[in-house]
């Protein structure tokens, strides 16, 4: 018999007032530590400070998150013999936490204050090195604790970004099947389903969500992003959650500079086009319906990307990395034509 051994987070907690009972929750889940360190950004640091556990533990607040600052923090963690990193913040802080955890060989607990991407549980970090951004394979968080009262009060654009990053799995899943069928690429159906189903769940539940801060919606979003991260870990690749729509997002990063438009907004925006090209008509329409309901940008002027840059990104996208997708099947002029109709 052949089995696959995979790492899962031992803690997945999503709900209200979890952080008020942080130590109880963590110990109940059998995560024991003696000398933890919290790392956060400035805004997330102010949010976390209100909780009792944060007063007790060492707390490092990032200034810029440069590679020099990360190196200095690495020395501090090693010399201070810290045995757990509690990364509180958005994707940037959690990415640094995962990177340091891998490098120092200690666990990292992810405590997102924003649900802006699947970085909250993925084994991949985007780090800024010498003014460019690099994607690095890192470590899976030992746990993910999502305090719903913090997420509910977070700026809407970050929630929309998380939604876009999750729904992009609908397009990524199709591309993986396509690459498997047409290029013989190895496909792991379990991880593909793990990323695809929560995205479909959100699409199929559209009518039940009253607003973008509907508790059930945020819960579905949080679990969906966590499952996406786990799916990437099982697949040993970002494939389950990153296909043609992420190719377009990566091309935009190159043209606009990383972070100038939120990652999930870019990926979710490109998903409108890729699901259309893929012939996923029902999914494409449902995505537009949900975007309309929540105010997700569906036109170029709404997302704030000019037409020339976006079309240039569409030209770059099929070759931006070795990943066969729907974009490789169409002539670029045809893709631009379709984009013209959808986004202008
Ligand atoms: Zn993504």
What labels describe this entry?
344 residues; two-stranded antiparallel sheet; binds zinc ion
In short:
By secondary structure, the chain is an alpha/beta fold.
Mean pLDDT: 95
Number of domains: 2
CATH architecture of the largest domain: Up-down Bundle
Bound molecules: zinc ion
Strand order of the largest sheet: 1-8-5-4-2-3
Biggest sheet descriptor? 6 strands, parallel
Tell me the CATH superfamily of the largest domain.
Answer: Dehydroquinate synthase-like - alpha domain
SSE ordering: EHEHHEHEHEEEEHHHHHHHHHH
Strand content: 5-15%
The N- and C-terminal alpha carbons lie at a distance of: 54 Å
The percent of residues in helical segments reads 40-55%
Unreliable stretches covering 5 or more consecutive residues: none
In total, how many beta strands?
8
Shape: globular
CATH domain topology of the largest domain:
Dehydroquinate synthase-like, alpha domain
- Radius of gyration, whole Å: 20 Å
Find the structural class using helix and strand composition: alpha/beta
Output the number of helix runs.
Answer: 15
Per CATH, the class of the largest domain reads Mainly Alpha
